[in-house]
């Protein structure tokens, strides 16, 4: 649960902005989307390896972004 401290004279828009920022930092939406479907650990690992290979190729200059 997210709690936002607001002062008496603070605008509701500012409080909403603080809430949105806190919500984004908590990564609750990412967790929710991740839990919607099960991904096998071997598939996750393969994706991580492919991303690492891609990043390495970008860093070495073999691929231009």
Bin the strand percentage.
under 5%
Report how far apart the termini are: 40 Å
Largest sheet: none
Structural domains: how many: 1
Residue windows where pLDDT falls under 50 for at least 5 positions: none
What would the principal axes of the Cα set say about the shape?
Answer: elongated
Please compute the radius of gyration using only Cα atoms: 20 Å
Query: Helical element count?
Result: 3
Main structural class: mainly alpha
Total beta-strand segments: 0
Give the SSE string: HHH
Helix proportion range: 55-70%
Average of pLDDT:
90
SSE order and pairing:
Blueprint: H1 12-26, H2 28-35, H3 41-60
Care to give the gist of this entry?
By secondary structure, the chain is mainly alpha-helical. It has three helices and no strands. The longest helix is centred in the last third of the chain and has 20 residues, at 41-60.
